[in-house]
Structures are given as structure tokens and as C-alpha cells.
């Protein structure tokens, strides 16, 4: 059963990846190349692993317990709030906010910054790809 | 004579409506800076403060807010061109500039003498409450902050109301 769900998710992830613009597809491929270099057994990104990262709490910026959902919410289709500045954030879900995952420069910038806010380090290529696959399913 | 009266009246009303601070007018600034926090008008800080801020974005009040080099250059040029000492025709910028002590590097808005003086009667609880959280969150109380309106009459403090002196 678990395997079926996983397979379905992977298929859904791939289907979604196909809706990305060429720049974003290239970026995903770059991440895949890097992830394979980091770990020879790497096959593909996984939305389920990404979901786990999204909800993992850590003592991040200013020693505050944070996860991605602290600012972007458990429901990615809703407006979030930057917990440090109270600024309202547009939804992270590409279905709710068509501008998401369209500009590679922005995607790179936010992944770098937000991993550092929550985990106090940059994400690996595998982690970044997993999180992107998770966001694509939302 | 009538013509001059009309001219005079329209000049006076124009002057009265002139903003006391130049509103933000740069799309890159709005995108890169105001996506995380209130879009502080460049005329709120002197050039040296903007140079410090744009030179230390990797640790921007505890967050990595770094951006690529060309965007950084473009933004710094905009911020300096409109910094408090380069916007002396705007009342607030002039007052901010005049309040600065020589040789001091002001690393945040909350250190600016004029702004400290203007907020000295605000009770600590009004700032510490979760709806505000910091003196740097202008828009929490200044309802026209996005349009660069900072008059007392536009102030509404959460759980308190209008600011009456």
C-alpha cells in the first residue's frame, strides 16, 4: 500500500514537473545532476521526503523554533505571514499563485535564504529538489 | 488680481498636499526588499546607513538576505540617490538628516535620533505586543506608511486606537 502511494506521488510529481517552464526544468535537472554527484544511489526527487522537510522543526534564526510552515502555513494555498516582520506572504502553492516556481533566480534565492532561516545552513541539491517536488503537488 | 488669487490658492493647496517623505518608486526595491518587510522609504536613512545595509545583506538583522551583485548595485544607487541627505526638500528627510550626529553609523531605523524622539512617548507594551513587535514595523500603526504618510492623524495603534497627545 505504502509503495502504491509512493509511486502515485512520484507519478504526480513527474506530471507536475512537466508543467514547469523550460528554465525551471533546467534548474530541476541541474539539481538532479548535483544530487547524483553527492550520492550515486540517487534516483529522483520525492514529494514525500520534501513534505517531511517542510514540516521539520528546528531552532533556527534567533533560536526560534521554526519550520517552513511557520511562515508559509500547513495549507500552502493560503496567505502566509513572515513571523519576523509580520509581512503577509502570497501563497506558496503554484495552483493558488501562478507566479510561484516560474523564476529560477527567485526560486534559488528563496530556497537558499529560507533553508538558512530554518536550518541555519543551505539545503543540499536533494533536499531542495524534494521540497520543490512537494510544493509542486500543492 | 483674481488670477493671482487662484494661483496663490492652488500653490498653497499643492504645498499642503506634498508628501513629507518621498514614496518608494522603484519596482526592484519593492520586489527585493518589500517582499519580506515594510518598504522603508529611502529618505528615512542617510546614505551611509544604506551603504552599510546593502554591504551586509548576508546577515541582515539575522537573516541571509543576499541578492546578486547587479541587483545590489542598482538598489544601492537608488537608495543613495534618495537617501535622507539627498532628499532635503522632503520635511521628514530633512529632520532626520539634521538629527544625525557626525561620525555615527546608524545601523537601523530605530537608532535615528529624530525617530527616537518622535516615538519617545509610546508605551513599551504598545511596541512589544504581537501586533506590532518592533518599532521598525512602521505599517503596524502608521496606516498610510505604504504611501509615505506618517502624520499623527493617520496613526492607529493596535489595542489602543488613535494616537492623541
Automatic annotation (TrEMBL), chain A:
Q: Which GO terms describe its molecular function?
A: electron transfer activity; heme binding; metal ion binding
Q: Which Pfam families match?
A: DUF1924
Signal peptide region: 1-17
> What is the top-level taxon of the source organism?
Bacteria
**Keyword check for Iron:** yes
Q: Which UniProt keywords apply?
A: Heme, Iron, Metal-binding, Signal
Give all residue intervals belonging to the Cytochrome c domain.
45-138
Fetch the InterPro entries from UniProt.
Answer: Cyt_c-like_dom, Cyt_c-like_dom_sf, DUF1924_SHP
Name of the protein: Cytochrome c domain-containing protein
- Organism of origin is Campylobacter iguaniorum
TrEMBL record, chain B:
Claim: Signal is one of the keywords in the record = yes
Per UniProt, which keywords does this protein have? Signal
The UniProt entry, under InterPro entries, shows: Dihaem_cytochrome-c (IPR018588)
- Top-level taxon of origin: Bacteria
Q: Which residues form the signal peptide?
A: 1-18
Protein name per Swiss-Prot or TrEMBL: Diheme cytochrome c
